[in-house]
């Protein structure tokens, strides 16, 4: 099967072993009706399955994502605010919000972001929340596999036909013909005559990526977008450095979350150097526990991540791009305490990459863990924060290791990858005391 890539992981959905049907389930389409029912004498259910209709995107897909996340945030806060449900579990049901196999389409991009938000809420309130992705034709959560999924004890499940599938992180294999070109090289090379667009291009990650594209991948034409553009700190020096390396670089002030502004920039590209690749590194943080989040704080984080990614997708889907790489975060994969809005935005990026791949388009989402070098996103972390992350089994990545993993990821034929260091000793310790997250159980032997 070949050797395994060090520090490069992917989520595999495996069949869950049958464990019975579990306790009775209360189904509802409106969580607000449950307190009234309990007030009237109904018993408090152990498990509540919330099956909401998918938002209609009459105002566009970005608005649908916001509507879904806002509603999920309201539901989370409503559930936590009522002490009568402190011993109960709320299961969010979605339909087609996750891809359980390579090339499986994500039918509901709006609901995909819910998975990130709920993962973070669960990390803050263990045992209170779970996620279940229903089969395509199961509108009410009554399909044959639902009872088995709810009785599995797993915090995340997807029902596909007669199967109940659960996510497990696995190391990516080298030279697996199903995953790469077999030679360790890029699946598609960057076009030396084409232009590569990098959002957040004057930021720390964006500038590192720009240099790597030039030095390691032969890119000769770069379009670096940021809100500051040429006026951003270090932009002039970066442009001069890239020129010395042989690359022609345009640094443009443009908010990629502004669709009209982005379209205008793309229309201005010279025909001799058309857009041939995209790397989306832009993002922002507004951390806070889920009970303190507001729709406005959610939108502030969704905009530079999700909105910009959607615009890039829509404006380039008719182009033959060699790469469409989204810089996501492991917060969307694991759920980070205090980062429900950020996790929602990044879970959306992972789903968008899967959507593009299912349509035959270039698309890859890289869910990074922390990089050692402080950036505008991570500069607020102190040494205690970094040590806490390391104790969790995920020490930070050096810049050189992160860039090497970026190179490696481009050789792997997967829509979503998690580049990260894992401290297996810490994972084994967590497995021994029963605190290892189910997502990581496939990486170490568990009692």
From TrEMBL:
Residues 194-374 form the Ketoreductase domain. It holds the Pfam family SpnB_Rossmann. Gene3D superfamilies: NAD(P)-binding Rossmann-like Domain (3.40.50.720). GO terms for molecular function: fatty acid synthase activity. GO terms for biological process: fatty acid biosynthetic process. Signal peptide: none annotated. InterPro entries: KR_dom, NAD(P)-bd_dom_sf, PKS_KR, PKS_NRPS_Biosynth_Enz, SpnB-like_Rossmann. Keywords: Multifunctional enzyme, Transferase. It comes from the Bacteria. This is SDR family NAD(P)-dependent oxidoreductase. It comes from Streptomyces halstedii.
């Amino acid at each position: 099967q070949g050797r395994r890539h060090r520090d490069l992981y992917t989520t595999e959905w495996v069949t869950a072993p049958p464990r019975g049907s579990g306790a009775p389930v209360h189904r509802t389409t409106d969580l607000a009706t449950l307190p009234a029912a309990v007030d009237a004498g109904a018993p408090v259910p152990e498990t509540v399955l919330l099956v909401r209709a998918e938002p209609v995107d009459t105002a566009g897909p970005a608005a649908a994502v916001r509507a879904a996340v806002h509603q999920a945030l309201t539901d989370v806060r409503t559930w936590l605010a009522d002490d009568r449900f402190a011993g109960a579990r709320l299961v969010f049901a979605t339909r087609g919000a996750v891809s359980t196999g390579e090339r499986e389409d994500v039918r509901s991009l709006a609901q995909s972001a819910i998975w990130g938000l709920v993962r973070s809420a669960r990390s803050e309130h263990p045992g209170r929340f779970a996620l279940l992705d229903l089969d395509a034709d199961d509108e009410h959560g009554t399909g044959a596999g639902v009872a088995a999924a709810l009785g599995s004890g797993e915090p995340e499940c997807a029902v596909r036909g007669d199967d109940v599938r659960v996510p497990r992180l696995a190391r990516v294999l080298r030279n697996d013909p199903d995953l790469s070109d077999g030679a360790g090289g890029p699946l598609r090379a960057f076009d030396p005559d084409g232009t590569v667009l990098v959002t957040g291009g004057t930021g720390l990650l964006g500038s590192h990526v720009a240099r790597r594209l030039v030095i390691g991948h032969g890119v000769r034409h770069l379009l670096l977008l940021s809100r500051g553009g040429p006026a951003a700190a270090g932009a002039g020096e970066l442009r001069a450095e890239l020129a010395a390396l042989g690359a022609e670089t345009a640094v443009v002030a443009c908010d990629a979350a502004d669709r009209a502004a982005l379209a205008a920039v793309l229309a201005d590209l010279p025909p001799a150097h058309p857009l041939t690749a995209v790397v989306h590194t832009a993002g922002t943080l507004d951390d806070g526990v889920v009970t303190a989040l507001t729709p406005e704080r959610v939108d502030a984080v969704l905009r530079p991540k999700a909105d910009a990614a959607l615009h890039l997708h829509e404006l380039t889907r008719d182009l033959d791009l060699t790469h469409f790489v989204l810089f996501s975060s492991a917060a969307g994969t694991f759920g980070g305490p205090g980062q429900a809005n950020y996790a929602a935005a990044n879970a959306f990026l992972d789903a968008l990459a899967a959507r593009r791949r299912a349509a035959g388009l270039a698309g890859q989402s890289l869910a990074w863990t922390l990089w050692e070098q402080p950036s505008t996103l991570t500069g607020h972390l102190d040494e205690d924060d970094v040590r806490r992350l390391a104790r969790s089994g995920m020490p930070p990545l050096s810049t050189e290791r992160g860039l090497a993993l970026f190179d490696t990821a481009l050789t792997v034929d997967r829509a979503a990858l998690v580049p990260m260091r894992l401290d297996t000793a810490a994972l084994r310790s967590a497995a021994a005391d029963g605190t290892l997250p189910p997502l990581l159980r496939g990486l170490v032997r568990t009692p």
